[in-house]
Design goal:
The structure is a homodimer. In chain A, about 45% of the residues lie in helices and about 10% in strands. By secondary structure, the first copy, chain A, is α/β, with parallel strands linked by helices. Chain A folds into two domains: about 160 residues, Rossmann fold (3-Layer(aba) Sandwich); about 70 residues, DNA polymerase, domain 1. Chain A has a six-stranded parallel sheet. In chain A, helix 1 packs across helix 2 and helix 2 packs across helix 3. Chains A and B meet through helix 2, helix 3, helix 8 and helix 9 of A and helix 2, helix 3, helix 8 and helix 9 of B.
Chain lengths: ~240, ~240
């Protein structure tokens, strides 16, 4: 296929949301794993709920609310200093080790991010991780004031890059995002990163296993991604 | 307060979604607990995602898709006979033991259900459980072709009962539904049924504990319910 733009999801696709785990463990001890997973699950829930309710607040606000929820849910007091340290990590998430090389290899088309993150969060993140120079655009759903998978978010790509959706390859590791991008009309590559759940031999799932069970599979929306790849560097082979 | 209508959520509020557990355990063995919790979590996710995506399918379809997901996620083959038995339980969920008495005591105003369930699911459910005669209306979001907390769903109450939202008490155990109903403008009573998470002494949460952690608390949307009650029979005291 020939694409004029490759557009990446950010959280979970270029950046490892699980990279907060070292800090949640340092600050919350043996509750760090539960905080990590509940935080991310609630962050996604809140984006969908605020989108559906028509009551937009930006992703920084949602990330803070979901952190408050996660801490309280396991009995940790969400003090200001604790929340500040954890929130700051969201501005400096680890990129996946191959992200830099993968973006560097894609020189024959436009490269962009389309993310739920706020404009400020994304700008900070791409500069902190040294990939800002490898991107032609960083598009925040802030412009549409709703969240993926609302089609208005995916429509921002054409509005920003002036490239029609038929010429766009969208890349995400998030099943709901794959479904939303397919429904919108992009060609979609799913980074199948979480792999199958490890639950099959352990009926008592811990937080990480349950997270993988909930988020690691393709969603049952009757839509399949056009491509399934194991890692970001495989994307170049789709061009 | 004087209300002209009391409107109840169905799943989790009048009917115990956890009552599928005996059957999931009978059919899936020690994976029954994980199937039960993942099924419900995904069912909610799919309602929000389809609502946000603008790609409505009714709740029967969503309940089936989320069951498929849940079974696959723990390595159980979603055979037709297995799925039929589990889906049929959703048409015959156990009402909470106090539901009949609570509805019977509320004779001074209109009584209704507003639920994500499809028209067919709800009709079957209220007849199977013997509460159909205690209700003036059973309102399905089918009419709006989207899901709670989309305000269009809550607006169905006035359209159906011809009672303005200021005169409605909405009752739900689901935190997202409480937030959505408050945002819409109802007075809201939260049935705080799940109670606090039991996780505080157990860093390794199992599926039921994680479900309670995710779903048993008030959501962090900056909106509080007007009333918090422990059980359906307490609702009469609010009138």
């Amino acid at each position: 296929m020939s694409f004029r733009a490759i557009v990446f999801d950010a959280y979970g696709t270029l950046y490892d949301v699980q990279s907060v785990l070292a800090l949640t463990t340092e600050l919350c001890g043996d509750k760090g794993e539960a905080v990590t997973q509940i935080w991310r699950l609630k962050q996604l829930e809140y984006s969908w709920l605020r989108g559906l309710m028509g009551d937009y607040e930006d992703f920084w606000s949602i990330t803070r609310s979901s952190l408050n929820f996660a801490l309280k849910s396991v009995g940790v007091e969400p003090t200001r200093s604790l929340c500040e340290r954890l929130m700051n990590k969201y501005l400096d998430l680890d990129p996946y080790p191959e992200a830099h090389a993968a973006l560097s290899s894609l020189t024959q088309c436009k490269r962009a991010i389309l993310s739920n993150g706020s404009t400020h969060m994304l700008s900070t993140l791409v500069h902190a991780s040294g990939i800002a120079a490898l991107l032609d655009a960083v598009i925040s759903v802030d412009l549409a004031r709703t969240y993926k998978p609302n089609p208005a978010c995916y429509a921002l790509v054409e509005q920003t890059l002036d490239i029609p959706k038929a010429d766009v390859l969208f890349v995400s590791s998030n099943g709901f995002d794959v479904a939303g991008a397919k429904h919108f009309g992009f060609k979609v590559a799913w980074i199948q990163r979480a792999g199958p759940s490890t639950s099959q031999s352990d009926p008592r799932l811990g937080p990480s296993q349950l997270f993988r069970a909930l988020r690691g599979r393709a969603e049952e929306f009757g839509q399949q991604p056009d491509y399934r790849v194991g890692t970001l560097t495989d994307v170049a082979s789709l061009l």
